[in-house]
Amino acid sequence: MTQRQDLLDFPGAEALQAAGRVEPPAPQAVVQALAAVHAAARLETAQHSVVASLERRPFARGRRILATAVAAAAVAGGVVAYSVTDAGQSGGHPTHQVQAVSVATFLDHTADVAYARPAAGARYWKVQTKVSHTGAKPAPATDYYYARSMDAVYIVAGGQTHKKSGTFGWRLGAKELHSWSDLDRLPTGPAQLVTLMNSSKEYAGQSAFLQAGALLGESPAGPKLRAGLYRALARLHGVKLVGTVKDSAGRTGTELVFSGVASTDHMVIDPKTSALLETSSVSTKGSDRGQTMRVTYLSVGPADKIG
Fold first, then answer.
1. Tens of pLDDT, residues 226-285
2. Which of 28, 73, 113, 130 is the most exposed place for a label (fewest CB within 10 A)?
3. Domain range annotation of the chain
4. Residue 184: enclosing H or E segment and its boundaries?
5. C-alpha–C-alpha distance, residues 268 and 220, integer Å
6. Phi-psi group of 67: left, alpha or beta (phi > 0 → left; psi -120 to 50 → alpha; rest → beta)
7. Which H or E element spans position 107?
8. Would you give the end-to-end CA distance of the chain in angstroms?
């Protein structure tokens, strides 16, 4: 075994080498990663006699210290470290590993999950959301039903259904999308999507982050487009991976953050399903500095009827 192989002989090393150079992490990512490492160390100390074990296995002690140091270095390099527990090989004792994942690796994996999801074939697209603002009483959950033509939206709130006529849709750069067919005609290549979404010179990057969030959270975008949007986010300069969090509904997801011109914007994604669970924006300028607007997507998917 070479000196380099010896130094990199710990769980997570391959992911660290594959991650390459990425953007510096958010401060919260550093705190979470170090907390994961310290928690694993405390648990191991409680399960074994530190003095006896380390005297018998001096090299193992050095390897654990090195693994901790490399994990901390990974965080400084823009890679988020996770503490993972499994049942172990024998004796039923849990083992602990630190896995390192870059934002590009996470989003590419999420894109693969999105690509494997089925396409919507129902008459309506249902979006159940809950919106909250700093200092305001949280609004009750509201259901929106979009027909394929997008010429009306049916709103169900408080047991009552209201039809609102008009032109509804989403935006992707200069493109206005007013039907499900418009979504199907969009390019799905990440480079093309980044070019479309980065049409704003002042808000380039931030506008792409927000537009991708709107499409992933609300629209009936097909599997190819959803995968393309996640891959576009992976190639967007300034997107950072925070790590595992809970959204306002108590669901576990992985958080992304983008610090823009006038706000810091967040996404919480379920990596198992590729669903966007929640978005939030914290104002960083002006009279509303520090104010937060949050949209929680409680349920999103096809529906054959309203109600």
1. 999 999 999 999 999 999 999 999 999 999 999 998 899 999 999 999 999 999 999 998
2. 73
3. 3-101, 107-303
4. helix 180-184
5. 18
6. alpha
7. helix 103-115
8. 64
The tens digit of pLDDT for each residue in 258-274 reads 999 889 999 999 999 99
At 277 the pLDDT is 98
Residue range 131-150: mean pLDDT, rounded: 90
Cβ neighbour number for residue 76 with a 10 Å cutoff: 11
Q: With DSSP H G I counted as helix, E B as strand and the rest as coil, what are the percentages for the chain, rounded to 5?
A: 35, 30, 35
| pLDDT computed for residue 204 by the predictor | 75
Name the CA dihedral angle for 164, 170, 174, 176, rounded to a multiple of 10 degrees: -50
Q: Indicate whether 292 pLDDT > 60.
A: yes
Hey, is 305 helix, strand or coil?
A: coil
Residues 151 and 141: their CA atoms lie apart, in Å, by 23
Domain 107-303 falls in which CATH fold?
outer membrane lipoprotein receptor (LolB), chain A (2.50.20)
Could you give the CA distance from residue 98 to residue 44 in angstroms, rounded to a whole number?
13
Using a 10 angstrom Cβ sphere, with 0-12 exposed, 13-18 middle and 19 or more buried, the burial of residue 27 is exposed
Which tokens go with 37? 């490492």
Tokens linked to 233: 């986010």
CA distance 151 to 159: 23
Residue type, 283: S
Q: Residue type at 167?
A: T
User: Between these two residues, 291 and 14, which has the higher pLDDT value?
Assistant: 291
Average confidence (pLDDT) over 102-113: 96
